[in-house]
Amino acid sequence: MLLTKDKKAEIILVIVSLLAAAGWLFSREALFAMTPFFFMGSRFLLAAAIVAAMDLKGLTALTATHIRRALVTGTVLGLQILLWVLALYHAENMGIGAFLMSLGFLFTPVLGALLFKVSTHGHTWVAIGVATLGLGFLSLNQGFDLGYSDTLFLLAALVYALYLNLNSRYAAMIPAIPLTGLQLAAAGVVTLTASLLTEPAPTMGVVSVLGWFAASVLIATSLRFFLLVVAQATAPVAHGAVIMTLEPVWTALLGIIWFGERMNWMQFLGCVLIFGALVVNAVGNSLRLRRQLVILAQG
Question: Domain residue spans in the chain?
Answer without folding.
Answer: 5-198+210-298
